[in-house]
Amino acid sequence: MSHLLKKPEHVVKSEGVTIVHDITGEQTNLEYVGFKVVDLEKGSFYGEQLNDSECCIVALTGKVDITAGEETFKNLGTRNSVFEQKPTDSVYVSNDRIFELKAVTDSRVALCYSPSEEQLPTKLIKADSIDVEPRGKYNNKRKVHNILPDNDPSANSLLVVEVYTESGNWSSYPPHKHDQDNLPEESFLEETYYHEMDPQQGFVFQRVYTDDRSLDETMTAENGDVVIVPKGYHPVGVPDGYTSYYLNVMAGPVRKWKFNNDDDHEWIVNRD
What we know:
Layout: E1 5-6, E2 11-14, E3 17-23, E4 34-40, E5 45-49, E6 53-61, E7 64-68, E8 71-76, E9 90-93, E10 98-103, E11 107-115, E12 123-125, E13 131-135, E14 142-148, E15 159-165, E16 170-171, E17 176-177, E18 179-182, E19 186-188, E20 190-198, E21 203-209, E22 216-222, E23 226-229, E24 236-237, E25 243-251, E26 260-261
Antiparallel strand pairs: 1-23, 2-3, 3-4, 4-11, 5-10, 6-9, 6-11, 7-8, 7-10, 9-12, 13-14, 14-15, 15-25, 16-24, 17-26, 18-19, 20-23, 20-25, 21-22, 21-24
């Protein structure tokens, strides 16, 4: 199996709390991006002390109360399945703070991390404030929920988006990369993809490759898998009959999303 493809681990942390993914610290070679998925049974609690990291807490499914410092946000979450395709609630928490989750219902929560030194205000990102953006044409159509885009100054490093791609379409396509710290031409951003499929037995193909092919891996990602993109191009293909969802986390030395397409496939953008 590819070292870039992470299968769910389902580690029981405490009563009612299961760590589905933990791609942080020694579990990853990424410098700027960390990621966890936590399942919570109704009534259970999960908390963390953030030291030199900021975190965007995304209520993937179910409802949770989130406390950060003196602030508590109640009944966050808008959907029972990500495939309801409506935005959900999130909370940004800066470095050197403590947060706690309480499951109001059975819930799945994503925790998105990146390094942070300058403490910023805690921010509730309400579902109804999230920009929904259609992208692409022909068989390159997808829908994007911009949870924490680079034009929102609420975070020091983090960028967070959700993407839906319908049956038979390609996403993160034409192949693009953001692995050069060379602004204004291109920014360096590591990235993770958390995948879900509808129906759940589906799969997608994701290729991660560089121009010189020193990295060139094509993976079959199934429901609940995470794909790590340390560098290179990273397109996703969705087979007929299935809908793809993925949650992207990006971060790097500069909080700017500036990418370049693979020259061989740039012509796709310019079709009539």
